[in-house]
Amino acid sequence: MENQRKSIAERVRGLRDASDFSAEEVARRAGIPLTDYVRYENGELDVPMSTVSILAALYKVEPTAILTGGDAHAHVFRVTRKGEGAVVARRNVYHYEALSVLFSGKKMEPYIVTVEPSLKELHLNTHPGQEFNYVLSGRMRLTVDGKEIDLGTGDSIYFDATKPHGMQTLGDEPAKFLAIITA
Questions:
Q1: CB 71 within 8 A of CB 59
Q2: Residue 23 · residue 42 · CB < 8 Å
């Protein structure tokens, strides 16, 4: 996980250098506190998936370029076999498996997200677009715009991702869900 964070940090810093933006300008344009952005570039802090999408749009690259360093070339279809999506491990309690990293020109980003029950503190975030979550296993509490919604296996929710939102597991088992985020 540490090596992955460092690799993403190097790509974020490289994109900024190539664009001739200052760190202050990127932080302002992306709506990120400068201290956080500097920590992203230094590999001291995980870059949230929502911020990966914002930075990709700012630099006019696919999120794939930030996550993996590769370019997306598939234009008609791309198969991702079970367990073979690009993995972005986050804070030991979040695990994202990106399912479409090699498809070019995406209008949405699908992920399999696993949240461990050890997550005690709710972390809220916002990002452009909308989000759809379908619970594959376990139970979770999703907070959207101050409202708490409990979801179990087979439940789904569609919401405005510009509103503060975050999730926690309910019980002692991890919660696993399909998250589709519009790009």
A1: no
A2: no
Q: By C-alpha distance, which of 109, 111, 84, 106 is closest to 96?
A: 111
CA distance 10 to 90: 17
- Two structure tokens written together for 80: 């991702």
Q: How buried is 18 (Cβ within 10 angstroms: 0-12 exposed, 13-18 middle, 19+ buried)?
A: exposed
pLDDT confidence of residue 123: 82
Q: What is the DSSP letter of 93?
A: T
Residue 58 host element (H or E): helix 49-59
Cα distance between residue 98 and residue 88, in whole Å = 8
In this prediction, residue 131 carries a pLDDT of 95
Q: Residue 175 and residue 19: Cα distance in Å, rounded?
A: 39
pLDDT in tens, 108-126: 889 999 998 887 778 888 8
The correct answer on CATH 3.30.70.1060 for the domain covering 2-67 is no
Contacts of 14 by beta carbon, 8 Å cutoff, 6+ apart: none
Of 18, 180, 14, the C-alpha closest to 100 is: 180
Q: Where are the domains of the chain?
A: 2-67, 107-182
Say which CATH architecture domain 107-182 belongs to: Sandwich (2.60)
